[in-house]
Design a protein that fits this description.
The protein is built from four helices and 40 strands. With 583 residues, it is mainly beta. Strand 31 and strand 32 form a beta hairpin. The two termini are 54 Å apart. Keywords: Cytoplasm, Nucleus, Phosphoprotein.
Length: 583
């Protein structure tokens, strides 16, 4: 059995700034433009039966604004008339109205059980689309940046079961065979889960292809399902389609399509409930092994061989227990007897008195160790000096205990640490695992649409951006940018809803649920001389923080960042904030 490689993320020290002094609030005005929408955004509120934290993460905090990373400054949203609306910005002072590029065939209002419509820009000419009712569409768009060739046409659509949202998709062309792979997320009811939330998260990896140019019809060729207990922060298919990467609190595993989950659960339970083959106890001088004998087993059916470092037990001609012992025994003094309750009791005399054995036979997991109550009491007595009934029995002796109320929010670690896992597409096994520990996930961004999306993690006080490279097995995740102190700063924003950064890393931005947008720029050289009085040195560059307040009382539903602009979507308006001027 292959074991997943335990990896770590390698930080590039030249990208860190240990002398970063913080952000300076800038009062420079930010140009802000407001567009009124013809129809409201198709927001879907959580139902009464969608009450868990996972529902809130996946659907309640959904970003209704979609950025086309293949074309600069082009954003899309779905309105409540079922229209996909696009705004492409060429000039801020000459903004047009959002235009309709496609209309969903289904009447969304007729479905009570639907989720929000979702889309992903698979390539420069393909879009994957979900109407929120459980139907998947593949749309051929033509060159979207060219109004003459752009035309949205349905190339494939099929009902795929319960409603889902699209997480990611890729387009592959191999030997004239075109295929599209997409990741779909569902939160399913789990009737057997009595202790947990009663729900589990399903990630379905669907592959749709067209085998030759002559055959126009696209069809599903592969459906694999991953199952977990938390909504992934990040999930993306590798550009070559050979694997996928997931960042999540709780692990995901592949389950076979069509496999009865109840049966597999029963099998797991039966394995757990299986009785141990033997029980063993120990004192400082000897070990006692107890084996329940089969019916009609006589003394003649039992063969036991004692060696200084080895034991071999044969019952009725079948080898029952054999292997190297953890330590040496006095094989000549070791004995065995048959007890009245039809059990075999083996006494092994330790060669090294006082040595506590952690296991009987090296590598054997078929037995169960029974700890003597007197031993437990003796161990507790030995450890008594390390414990106390009082919080701080002797405050003068050392430092007082840590007061959790004095901790800031950014100092609090999660009870469960996230992990980054890479799954192989053919074996469906985990090949690489990174334990993220306290490196809190912040956001993801597409820097190069031909590569996997980058993800941003908190490292100490900074926020570090990582670019996955699936082809490089030795260094699969590259540290490409740093946002100084942003990990610490964002922790104080208790009402933050969306987090993003420019694809060229020039700034990071976050917005609250209502009105306010915070922008954090990378350090830039100063035009005037500035001195740090404490250290008595000249400051060469300053990182600016800016705050924009939107003129609306509607909640923010979508948020996207490009190199020059921020796009903010509310129920009835689309706002543009000019952050950078064109180079």
């Amino acid at each position: 059995m292959e074991v997943a490689a335990n990896c770590s993320l390698r930080v590039k020290r030249p990208l860190l700034d240990p002398r970063f002094e913080g952000y300076k609030l800038s009062l420079e005005p930010l140009p802000c433009y407001q567009l009124e929408l013809d129809a409201a955004v198709a927001e879907v509120k959580l139902r009464d039966d969608q009450y868990t934290l996972e529902h809130m993460h996946a659907f309640g905090m959904y970003n209704y604004l979609h950025c086309d990373s293949w074309y600069q400054d082009s954003v899309y949203y779905v309105d409540n008339l079922g229209r996909i609306m696009n705004l492409t910005v060429m000039l801020d002072t000459a903004l047009g109205k959002p235009r309709e590029v496609f209309r969903l065939p289904t009447d969304l209002i007729a479905y009570d059980n639907r989720l929000c419509a979702s889309m992903h820009f698979t390539s420069s000419t393909w879009v994957t689309l979900s109407d929120g009712t459980g139907r998947l569409y593949l749309i051929g768009t033509g060159e979207r940046g060219n109004s003459a060739s752009e035309k949205w046409e349905i190339m494939f659509n099929e009902e795929l079961g319960n409603p889902f949202i699209i997480i990611h998709s890729i387009s592959l062309l191999k030997a004239e065979e075109h295929s599209i792979a997409t990741l779909l997320l569902r939160i399913e009811k789990e009737e057997l889960d009595m202790k947990g939330s009663g729900f589990y998260v399903s990630l379905e990896w669907v592959t749709i292809n067209k085998k030759s140019k002559d055959k126009k019809k696209y069809e599903i060729t592969k459906r694999n399902i991953l199952r977990g207990k938390s909504v992934p922060h990040y999930a993306a298919i590798e550009p070559n389609g050979n694997g996928l990467m997931i960042v999540s609190y709780k692990s995901f595993t592949f389950v076979q399509v069509g496999q009865n989950l109840e049966e597999s659960k029963d099998e797991d339970m039966s394995e757990k409930i299986k009785e141990p083959l033997y029980y063993w106890q120990q004192t400082e001088d000897d070990l006692t092994v107890t084996i329940s004998l089969p019916e009609d087993c006589t003394k003649e059916d039992i063969q036991i061989q004692f060696l200084p470092d080895h034991v071999n037990v044969v019952l009725k001609g079948h080898r029952f227990l054999e292997g190297n012992l953890y330590s040496s025994i006095d094989h000549e003094s070791s004995t065995w007897i048959i007890k009245e309750n039809n059990s075999l009791e083996i006494s092994l005399i330790k060669k090294n008195e006082g040595l506590i054995w952690p296991e009987l036979v090296v590598g054997d997991k078929q037995g169960e160790f029974i700890r003597d109550s007197a031993q437990c009491a003796a161990i507790a007595e030995r450890l008594m000096h390390l414990t106390s009934d009082e919080l701080n029995p002797n405050p003068d002796k050392g430092k007082p205990p840590c007061n959790a109320q004095e901790l800031e929010e950014c100092d609090i670690f999660f009870e469960e640490s996230s992990s980054l896992c890479r799954f192989d597409g053919s074996t469906l096994k985990t090949t690489h695992v990174v334990n993220l520990g306290s490196n809190q996930y912040l956001f993801s961004v597409i820097v190069d649409p031909k590569e996997m999306p980058c993800f941003c993690l908190r490292h100490d006080v900074d926020a570090l951006l990582w670019q996955p490279h699936s082809g490089n097995q030795d260094d699969m995740w590259e540290h490409i940018a740093t946002f100084n102190a942003l990990g610490y700063v964002q922790a104080s924003k208790r009402d933050k809803k969306f987090f993003a950064c420019a694809p060229n890393y020039s700034y990071a931005a976050l917005c609250e649920c209502l009105r306010r947008v915070f922008i954090y720029r990378q350090p830039t050289p100063m035009s005037t001389v500035l001195y740090n009085r404490k250290e008595g040195r000249q400051v060469g560059q300053v990182a600016k923080q800016q705050v924009a307040s939107l003129e609306t009382s509607d909640p923010i539903l979508g948020f996207q960042a490009t190199n020059e602009r921020l796009f903010v979507l509310t129920t009835k308006n689309l706002f543009l904030i000019k952050v950078n001027t064109e180079n």
